[in-house]
Specification:
Helix content: 40-55%
Bound molecules: pyridoxal-5'-phosphate
Distance between the termini: 16 Å
Order of helices and strands: HEHEHEHEHEHEHEHEH
Number of helices: 9
Shape: globular
Radius of gyration: 17 Å
Strand order of the largest sheet: 7-6-5-4-3-2-1-8
Structural class: alpha/beta
């Protein structure tokens, strides 16, 4: 199997960073205001290590168990790693998630908000959180519907005391992503939330034009996902 070298990972990262820079500039924004989260789910260890060697420090994973196996040991070898959970969280994984991750992007229902609040207290560890909005109101997708967003954001802040820093969305693949990015931006603005987690390999440049502060990029950095 093809092994990714640090050079190759570095080259992909340079390309993505240069695109981030250009899109930010075109939108009259500072590229430093865009965090690049390298989504390493289902990638081989050598690709992940190549990206670390190439200087990447912010990574995203979508499964708690897979992430714990991969990042538990690496955390001890590398300083300044920042790990983001970008996939759905189940209550029974909350304890491990809070122990491992630094940021949660997928707070999407009352039960998980409540469980996270309790776990933050228990572990004396407050993780910054994004609330996931199901902007396309898709049956099969996680997230709060846009109509419930204001109420749920208030509940997360006031009832559960979660450190909510922004909103996250995954637009329906069949739709124009821009509509969803604009909707997420509007919901965040009216709730005084500054950060927007939106944009993946196919559309991160567009997301930056709509104000994305946290883009989640996998295949453009690592290539096609290799494990299931
Ligand atoms: C897999 C995944 C990504 C990365 O997708 P790419 O198309 O490989 O860039 C981003 N966000 C979430 C929530 C994901 O699950």
């Amino acid at each position: 199997m093809h092994t990714m070298t640090a050079d190759e990972a570095g080259e992909n990262l340079r390309t993505v960073r240069s695109n981030i820079h250009d899109s930010a500039e075109a939108a009259g924004r500072d590229a430093d205001g865009v965090n690049l989260i390298a989504v390493s789910k289902k990638q081989s260890d050598d690709r992940v290590d190549a990206a670390i060697k190439a200087g990447q420090r912010i990574f995203g994973e979508n499964r708690v168990q897979e992430a714990t196996l991969r990042w538990g040991p690496r955390r001890q070898n590398w300083e300044n790693l920042e790990l983001h959970l970008v996939g759905p969280l189940q209550s029974n994984k909350a304890k491990d998630a809070v122990a491992l991750f630094d940021v949660i992007h997928t707070v999407d229902r009352r039960k998980i908000a409540e469980t996270l609040a309790r776990e933050f207290d228990r572990q004396n560890r407050q993780l910054n959180c994004f609330i996931e909005i199901n902007t396309g109101e898709e049956e099969a997708k996680a997230g709060v519907s846009p109509g419930q967003a204001d109420k749920f954001i208030a509940e997360c802040r006031d009832t559960f005391g979660l450190p909510i820093i922004g909103l996250m969305c995954i637009p329906p693949s069949s739709d124009e992503a821009a509509l969803h990015f604009a909707l997420l931006r509007d919901i965040a603005a009216r709730n005084g939330l500054r950060r927007l987690s939106m944009g993946m390999s196919a559309d991160y440049e567009k997301a930056i034009r709509f104000g994305a502060t946290d883009i989640r990029v996998g295949t453009s950095i690592f290539g096609q996902r290799v494990t299931s």
